Amino acid sequence: MAVKIGLLGLGTVGTGTAQILLDPSGRNPLLKEITIDRVGVRSPDKPRLVQFPPEVITTDLEAIVTDQDIVIVVELLGGLEPARSLIVQAIAQGKHVVTANKAVIARYGDEIYEAANQAGVYVLLEAAVGGGIPIIKPLKQSLGANRITEIIGIINGTTNYILTEMTTAGADFDDVLADAQRLGYAEADPTADVDGLDAADKIAILASLGFGGRVHREDVYCEGIRQISAADIAYADKLGFVIKLLAIAKGSAGQESQTLQLRVHPTLVPKEHPLANINGVYNAILVQGDPLGQVMFYGPGAGAGPTASAVVSDVMNIVAILQSSGQAQNLDPLLSCVHQHSCQITPIEAVESRFYARFLCGDSPGVIGHLGTSFGNYQVSLESVVQIGFQEELAEIVVVTHHVREQNFRAALAEIRTLEAIKNIPSILRVL
Ligand code: HSE
Questions:
Q1: CATH 3.30.360.10 domain residues, the chain
Q2: pLDDT confidence of residue 341
Q3: pLDDT by residue (tens digit) across 5-64?
Q4: Is any atom of ligand 1 closer than 6 Å to the C-beta of 201?
Q5: Which fold, 349-431?
Q6: Tens digits of residue pLDDT in 139-175
Q7: CA dihedral defined by 59, 61, 63, 66, rounded to 10 degrees?
Q8: Atom of ligand 1 lying closest to residue 102 CA
Q9: Other beta carbons less than 10 A from residue 359's beta carbon
Q10: Where in the chain is the domain with CATH 3.40.50.720?
Q11: Exactly one of 95, 140, 202, 244 is catalytic; which is it?
Q12: Ligand 1: does its nearest atom lie under 6 Å from the Cβ of 396?
């Protein structure tokens, strides 16, 4: 018998999902066992790329999550509410849930999975991170034998598109953002993407799966790309780097009760690094595991088709389980999520990384010496110091440090800010 699903949302991803399910020919035969019973929308009269009989479409979203016939609720509304409440209600009604909602899962994953495990239902979210790239199921299953040590990703397509355009055109952030908005690559309100919030949601989810503990979204240190300038991209290029917005989850190697670095920030990536060549709206996630070594997942991180591909694969997983066992009371531990403890997070001040800093200063004798002394006062060792250009009357000095504790670097900068010759520090970035 066909499994009935209820679709919450018929936007870009909802439409892509419906298109796959309504056109099963040449795809997995399981798709023919799935019917879209009801579709919840906000505006029923909006013109749509897929047509449903009027009795299938409703604006009463609660009626879908409480409908006795519906077995799987597919939540593609986005945003926190009413998505969260509807997911919780669906679980309480004993329904399985498939969602692409990283914002809800990153913040309320705890309560959602606890409720789902008690109710004996699945909440699957392959589409929430990396669009069409399979990464959730690999972390839960295919890489399950590994001790995961590091997950580093370019997991926001909008910012990767903007940084790529800035690099190829030598343009500044505001101009590229305006173009990206005109072309539909960036939202009218770009905050979630350009301030790194979307990537932070996603790395919180990946870290929780990879490191096997609860991760609190507010523990993700987050900087966006608004302050990146064409000058920084040009300096990075001269020094052998490209600038990427990276999301990083890194365990403290070899410790029994390990703490986790969890951060999203623009980063100078060496040109020879695998993530340096991920361009445009594409996403890539590098997972380091023991004994696996490194594996990279690459592909389209957003868009109707790719994201719908992930949504429908989750629906198929649940349908396959239901068909083979007749019910799903005993949840497959490799598909469900049961975390007993919270991951301990290393505060950003204690994280060690390399830094890039650009200084504007008076072109007078001894300036570089003063900079070096202040860095030395806080055990910040310098890898390179270059003075290439001038901005108006001011000399531009760029410094790259060796690995240093962030609090030492910040303390040195505080001292440097008091130096007479230093007029401005327009950028401070981390280096991979
Ligand atoms: N806004 C996201 C991005 C796509 O730019 O990657 C959805 O996760």
A1: 136-300
A2: 86
A3: 999 999 999 999 999 999 999 999 999 999 999 999 999 888 899 999 999 999 999 999
A4: no
A5: Alpha-Beta Plaits (3.30.70)
A6: 999 999 999 999 999 999 999 999 999 999 999 999 9
A7: 170
A8: 8
A9: 27
A10: 3-131+304-336
A11: 202
A12: no
CATH superfamily of 3-131+304-336: NAD(P)-binding Rossmann-like Domain (3.40.50.720)
Residue whose entry in the numeric block shows the structure tokens 């230093």: 422
3.80.10.10, 3.20.20.140, 3.40.50.300, 3.30.360.10: CATH of 136-300: 3.30.360.10
202 included as an active-site residue = yes
Any atom of ligand 1 within 6 Å of the Cβ of 302 = yes
Structure tokens at 146: 């590994």
**Candidates 126, 198, 225: which one to mutate for ligand 1, based on the most atoms within 8 Å of Cβ?**
198
Q: What is the C-alpha separation between 184 and 166, in angstroms, rounded?
A: 17
85 and 73 Cβ atoms separated by less than 8 Å: no
Considering only CA atoms, which of 265, 276, 124, 267 is closest in space to residue 205?
A: 124
Element (H, E) at 169: helix 157-169
Range in 197-201, 250-254, 309-313 the model is least confident about = 250-254
Query: Count of alpha carbons within 13 Å of 314, Cβ hemisphere only?
Result: 32
pTM: 0.95
Q: Is the CB of 196 under 6 A from ligand 1?
A: no
Question: pLDDT tens digits, residue range 4-13?
Answer: 999 999 999 9
